[in-house]
Each structure stands twice: as C-alpha cells, then as structure tokens.
Design a protein that fits this description.
FAD/NAD(P)-binding domain, disordered N terminus
C-alpha cells in the first residue's frame, strides 16, 4: 500500500475513476471495499463543486413534479447517509458534519403559500412525511424568521452534511484502503480493440503517463463529456450550472441563530440557509447558465443577502466570512448518469446537477455493485447513460 498522500507508480488497476470530487471518491471507496484495485485521477482530490456546496440532504423538500424516479433515488440515498457517514468516521476518525436537523420550507406571500400547499398535497399522495405549519408555528420553531412568514412545511427527515468535511473523510478512507491517487489531469481517454468493437482501456495523463484499467469511470462533473478521445455519442453534453454561495459566522451571543435548514422562494428564486454546529451559516444559491465561469459577482452576493434578509432579517448582523462559486453538472434531463455507457469498458457517474452531495452514498453503492458484478442494480435503471439513445460510431 502506498504511503498516505503518496502517488504510487501503478499503471494498471481494476477500476480507474476520472474525477476526485465526492462522487468519484465515494465510488472509489465503495469499490475498493469490494476487493478491486482502484485508482483516482484528479489534480486535487476532494475539490470541485463540493467546496461550495451547502450540503442540504432534502429529497422531500426539493421534490418537483414528474421527478418521482429521482425522488426514489434521493430518498434511498438519504436513508443511507447516517450509516455512510458513521462508517467513514469510524474508519478515519474524521467528522463529516452530518446532522439530522430537518428542513423548514416557508412561504413569504400568498402565492408562495399556495404553491407550498400544492407541494404538501403532492407529498401526501406519494406517502411522504411532511407537516404543514402556520406562520406562527414556523416562527415558534425558528424565532429569527421574518414576521411576514405565511406558513410552511416541516420535513423532519431532511438532513445536512458538511461537504468539505465529507470530502476530506472520503480521501482519507480511500487512502486507508489503498486507492492510488494520480494527482494530474486526465488528458485523453484511451481506447483499443478492432474496428466496430472498440473499448475504453484507460487514460493518458497531462504528465504523459498512461494508465490502464479494466473499467474506467467518468466522474468529472461538467467536464466529463469533454475528455479528449471520448467517441461522439457516448455521453450527452453535461452543462455547467453556476451557483454562488455565502458563508457567514454566527457569534455566540446570537446562538442558536437557526436550528434547522430553512428554505424559501423569494421573487421566484430559491434560497436556503444551512446552519452548522460550529456556528457557520451557509446561504445559497444562485442558478446561472454562464458556462464554466466561476466568478463571484457583486450582483450574486447582493441578491443572496437581499433575499436572505427578507427571510431572516437578523442575518445582516452576521459576519460575512467567505463567498464562493461552483459548477453543478446538469444532464439534459437534470438527472444523473449512472452505470455503463455505450462504449464497453466505460461507465459514468456524473450529471447529478443540484443533488451531488445528496446522491453520493447511493451512487457509490450502485456503481460499486456494477463494477464488482457487471450487473447494474434495479434502482439505477432509470438513470443509465443509454437512456438518451446515443450510439457509438462503429
């Protein structure tokens, strides 16, 4: 086993994961637990969009009409989170910031209240657990809420995790199991075989080194489909969706400022506030179709603070300690791509859009099962990359 943090000169592995965000790291960890040799290619493992993610685990609160398969996947992942994070902490000694806090979604005007009422009825039809509260009951749970809150939904089973802590624990867990980290960029997908029967065989690194693997997994977020050497039609375009977030500090005299995740729609824009146990408060997030730009803008910061102030007026008294922007990987239908692609030897674990943190445990389990057995579990059937009916040229 290589020393901790050391890049070993291992050219072949059973599984090669391209991308060291939390999705790629989760797949690598669970796959290594199955007894396969695993390598991860990423210049900075544990980075990516998770560095700016709020870490809300809210499959019920974020339910949208027509997304029942995604709901099932999200609920399954949320149900695995407590055990997933407990196992990581036991193995590494690192806290992931997992908290069973619940989520309160509130309405600030009559239209929002009507929309939340419809969502509550939809949740009830699906057998989901959520409780309708009056504005007064919402403020009793969270006294810092604005007096004008008209009502809300309390979902006790929506939780949270600290994405940065989770990523650090996943890196450490992978190292404990002998996962090899190649801290360089993947420059080209390598393929082999005769015409009409090509298969992925590994990648060439930006250093010029070549790595081979029995199966290569693309988990590079919005750059997954941009890897040179990837044949046309194997993956649909994964678009980057920019999100700006703020991190504030709650001084001890204001604690507890909020006790649970709080979200709302303000002027048609979704906003959420996620309180950490250490006094940090994460406010997010904008949704911007701006390509691969990750610039933090004055307008983005202003809009988040303005909308957060309408929801929780006391927020303007808090220290603003960090601003950031990241890129969510959005597939054409905003659902993840999980499992084998049309190119033999190549699997995908990307396209999670707003649900990357939430879906990490279930993605890791489903991909590890596929990589170990060659069979994709039924829970992933609606999310195969082949649903877009793309074909690899012969």
């Amino acid at each position: 086993m290589p020393a901790k943090g050391e890049e070993a000169a291992v050219a072949h592995s059973d599984v090669l994961v391209v991308g060291g965000g939390i999705i790629g790291l989760g797949v690598a960890w669970r796959t290594a637990q199955r007894g396969l040799s695993v390598a991860v290619v990423d210049p900075s493992p544990g980075g990516g969009a998770v560095r700016v993610a709020a870490g809300m685990l809210a499959p019920v609160t974020e339910l949208q009409y027509g997304e029942e398969p995604l709901l099932r996947l999200g609920v399954a992942s949320n149900e695995r989170y407590a055990a997933f994070t407990a196992e990581l902490t036991e193995l590494t000694g690192l806290d992931t910031g997992y908290r069973a806090t619940g989520t309160l979604a509130v309405a600030l005007d009559a239209d929002d209240r009507a929309e939340l009422r419809e969502l509550h009825a939809f949740q009830a039809r699906l057998g989901l657990s959520s409780e309708w509260l009056t504005g007064r009951e919402c403020r009793r749970l969270e006294p810092m809420l604005a007096p004008g809150v008209r009502g809300g939904l309390h979902v006790a089973d929506d939780h949270q995790v600290d994405g940065r802590r989770l990523a650090a624990a996943l890196v450490a867990a992978c190292e404990r199991l002998g996962v090899v980290f190649h801290r360089a960029a993947a420059a080209e997908l390598l393929t082999g075989g005769h015409p009409g029967a090509a298969r992925a065989t590994g990648v060439r690194l930006s250093t010029g080194a070549e790595l081979s693997a029995g199966c290569t997994v693309l988990a590079a977020g919005p750059r997954s489909h941009l890897l040179p050497g990837l044949p046309d039609g194997v993956l649909p375009a994964i678009r980057p969706v920019k999100g700006q977030v703020l991190r504030l500090r709650v001084p001890p005299r204001y604690a507890p400022f909020l006790s649970r995740n709080v979200r709302a729609v303000v002027r048609g824009q979704h906003i959420y506030l996620v309180p950490r146990a250490d006094g940090e408060l994460v406010v997010g997030a904008t949704t911007e179709e701006q390509g691969h730009d990750t610039t933090v803008t004055a307008g983005g910061v202003y809009e988040l603070l303005r909308d957060a102030h309408e929801l929780v007026p006391g927020i303007t008294e808090l220290e603003l300690v960090e601003t950031g922007a990241g890129l969510r990987p959005g597939s054409p239908d905003n659902a993840p791509l999980l499992g084998p692609t049309a190119l033999p030897g190549l699997a995908a674990a990307t396209g999670h859009y707003r649900n990357g943190v939430l879906l990490t445990p279930v993605t890791a389990d489903l991909l590890a099962d596929y990589l170990a057995t060659g069979e994709l579990p039924a829970l992933a059937a609606d999310f195969t990359p082949r649903r877009f009916r793309t074909e690899v040229p012969a």
